[in-house]
Amino acid sequence: MTAPALPTAVRDEALGLLQALIRLDTTNPPGLERAAAELLAQSLRADGVEPQLLEKEKDRTSVVARLKGTGELPPLLLTAHLDVVAAEAARWRHPPFAAVVEDGWLYGRGAIDMKNMAAMSTMVLKLLRREGAPLRRDVIFAGVADEEAGCRLGSEFLVNEHPDLVRAEYALGEIGGYTQPLRGARLYPIMVAQKGMAWFRARVEGSPGHGSTPREDNPVVRLSAALGRLHPTALPFKATRTAREMVEGFAGASGFPGNFVLRLLLNPALGRWALGRIPDEGTRRSLSALLRNTATPTVLRAGTKTNVIPSFAEAELDGRTVPGDGPEELEAELRKVLGPDVKLELLRSLEAVEASPDTGMYRHLAAAVASLDPEGVPVPLLVPGFTDAAPFTRLGTTFYGFSPVVFPRAPAVSFSALYHGDDERIPVEGFHRGLEVLLDVVRRWCT
Ligand SMILES: [Zn+2]
Predict the structure, then answer these.
(1) Which terminus of the chain has fewer Cβ atoms in its 10 Å neighbourhood, N or C?
(2) What local confidence, expressed as pLDDT, does residue 80 receive?
(3) What value does the mean pLDDT take over residues 210-216?
(4) Among 350, 380, 411, which residue terminates a domain?
(5) CA of 147 to the centre of ligand 1 (A)
(6) 203 near 226, Cβ under 8 Å?
(7) Distance 154 CA to ligand 1 centre (A)
């Protein structure tokens, strides 16, 4: 199938909407997504779609709109978060909230994470409404606040307090549908799974004393020794179903010896050896993180005076769990590495998500990749971080990461380097193609 091209006027309208959205600074914290939600609401109203603005706290606004179908089939949800992470303007080629277009690229914080999807989804509802598409299911759009700080005031709030507005059979959102070059092949990951989160406080206690007289039970020394054992691959190897399918997908697209090394990653005995053979450090780190639970020490606290041995030392650990595991499994693994000396307290957790790629929707998305890029190869993706998928999944929704954008062959720009990075930008042509394909995907699924 090939998604038809949109008229220039519609492409310009979509680009203008994305630029206007980028120019509204929604850096989180403090987020303040109201203006962005209002902009999208106004754009939807212009085509007769009546949106709702909802907020848990003042100006932490989400926008939800629904295009009614006959109700023969269950609804489809399109979703994007409206907040962005901070940008260090001095490091950028163009100011991060100016939405400058140069050489076919639109620069701006949120250009790919993920105001592009917010603009595309809004356009999809507007265009389906304009063409009077005979929908057999409702199409919902939720532009949500607060994803970058943990989803509480956005998707989690909607799911807890307005579930009927956003409940759907499938949701399409962050992360997927972008070009990932691999040894000449062009992969298009579709997120089906994400790791969960389990943040812990690790604490060691002892007796206070004078710094002039060292003690064996000094909590600073004991905690440091325990954390020293927590290297990136300290926790056991665990290849989940999605991790296997993802690695197989990458292996299938790379020639020898890359495919050989990638497949060895799935071998519990040789996985660590294979990991060391992966030349790119970023790829190596993320593959390693996807094949096990992890816990990264990030915050340390102990003592206030140089000459006083403190009575305790503590660290905060950013723990992430593979699908199938939760805080309990991670805690048990941590106890083995850190030892009985260290007390662990769970601070916060979010469940992992894993959807099956064996569904009509996944096959529908995988087929749409050919329309994005004739050489495109779809691959199911597991991601180490969290997205709005976790809250939405609690309503029984199957969530796939599909916010399509096509990157050119040259210049080679890496999607993952742009994500939260300097000079975040989107290829204008690739954005337009993404919109055309998303519109086609939704139209075919819903009519
Ligand atoms: Zn994001």
Answers:
(1) N
(2) 98
(3) 94
(4) 350
(5) 7
(6) no
(7) 13
Burial (CB < 10 A; 0-12, 13-18, 19+), residue 411, is exposed
CA of 329 from ligand 1 middle (Å) equals 27
- Centre of ligand 1 from the C-alpha of residue 81, in Å: 7
Candidate from 75-79, 363-367, 416-420 with smallest mean pLDDT: 416-420
The rounded Å distance from CA 26 to ligand 1 centre is 12
**Cα 146 to ligand 1 centroid, rounded to whole Å:** 10
Cα of 85 from ligand 1 centre, angstroms: 8
Q: How far is the CA of 83 from the centre of ligand 1 (A)?
A: 8
Q: Which letter does DSSP use for residue 354 in this model?
A: E
Asked if residue 201 and residue 169 are part of one domain, the reply reads no
- The CA 343 to ligand 1 mean position distance, Å, reads 33
Distance 268 CA to ligand 1 centre (A): 32
pLDDT, one tens digit per residue, over 167-187 is 999 999 999 999 998 878 899
- Backbone phi and psi for residue 149, each to the nearest 5 degrees, phi listed first: -110, 15
**What's the gap in Å between 342 CA and the centre of ligand 1?**
34
In whole angstroms, give the CA distance from residue 31 to residue 234. Answer: 36
Cα 245 to ligand 1 centroid, rounded to whole Å = 23
pLDDT higher than 80, residue 438: yes
Alpha carbon of 444 to ligand 1 centroid (Å): 26
Domains: count for the chain: 2
What's the gap in Å between 148 CA and the centre of ligand 1? 7
Specify whether 346 is located in the same domain as 359.
no
CB neighbourhood size of 216 (10 A): 7
Q: Say how many Å lie between the CA of residue 156 and the centre of ligand 1.
A: 15
CA atoms of 275 and 282, how far apart (whole Å): 12
275 neighbors 203 (Cβ within 8 angstroms): no
Query: What is the pLDDT, as a whole number, of residue 335?
Result: 97
Whether residue 134 is found in the same domain as residue 16 = yes
How far apart are the C-alpha atoms of 140 and 246, rounded to whole Å?
29
Query: At which of 321, 350, 379 does a domain end?
Result: 350
* Residues 416-444, mean pLDDT to the nearest whole number: 95
Do residue 216 and residue 127 come from a single domain?
A: no
Asked if residue 1 has pLDDT above 70, the reply is: no
CA 39 to chain CA centroid, nearest Å: 24
Its pTM stands at 0.91
Average pLDDT score over residue span 377-400: 96
Q: What is the extent of the structural domain holding 282?
A: 196-350
* Residue 245 banded pLDDT, cuts 50, 70, 90: very high
